[in-house]
Amino acid sequence: MSELPAGPLSRRDRARADTVREIKATARRVLVEQGVDGLALRAVAREMGMTAPGLYRYFASREDLVEHVVADLYDELTDTLEEVRDAADPATPGFQLLSVSRAFRRWATTHHAEFGLLFGSAGERVLDPASMHGDGERPQQVASRRFGGVFAALVARIYLEQGFPVPADDELDPQLQVQLRNWCTKLPVALPLGVMSVFLSCWIRLYGMVCMEVFGHLRFALDDAEPMFEAELRALGEVLGVADEYRPPQGG
């Protein structure tokens, strides 16, 4: 998709920007109503009263459109998390992290189709997984790093401000050390490998719990996964030394 010019937009550029926003909003609606397999340029064009070739004036391909929808969804999710983080009272990193984690689950469980595109196999059926994450500068890569940075920054603040138990480097598997070290080089603040190991373990638990709930993989045991999620959240608080900042969800 061609970039809009910097500075004040002309009437033509404003009209183009409005059309681009409408296309992406329509694509999201098609995703929610028909699933990722129904997210075709022809379907989006039909919803907008356009021809499929007409959409190519705005997006080069279905993949190009999906990439920008993915980036917008990541930004929407991250905006939600940052709003919750900034409104948390007390504004301590521990309480903020617990609040943000709960907000992540809330967004995921109320946006099943969107969550599947960002974090499930649905997205992989449309885009190369390597193009959705990583160190590149594609819109969805930039947006996904911003999302991950919300959690990473809060865990880093907890460690730097009050600390929590972490394994020594020589307690970690050598192959894990190499991978964690490579990951650490990409971070703005140097942290011990043990911190990254604990953070990754916590993220796997949180993300895994949410994914299993959204994709229906807990129904064999749980009709309502919220109590189990809250138990996991309290356990993560113990690991990070912020268990005393846990508060039950409002109304729970």
From TrEMBL:
Q: Report keywords, A-Z.
A: DNA-binding, Transcription, Transcription regulation
- Indicate whether Transcription regulation appears among the record's keywords: yes
Feature: DNA-binding region: 40-59
Question: Which positions fall inside the HTH tetR-type domain?
Answer: 17-77
| Name of this chain's protein | TetR/AcrR family transcriptional regulator
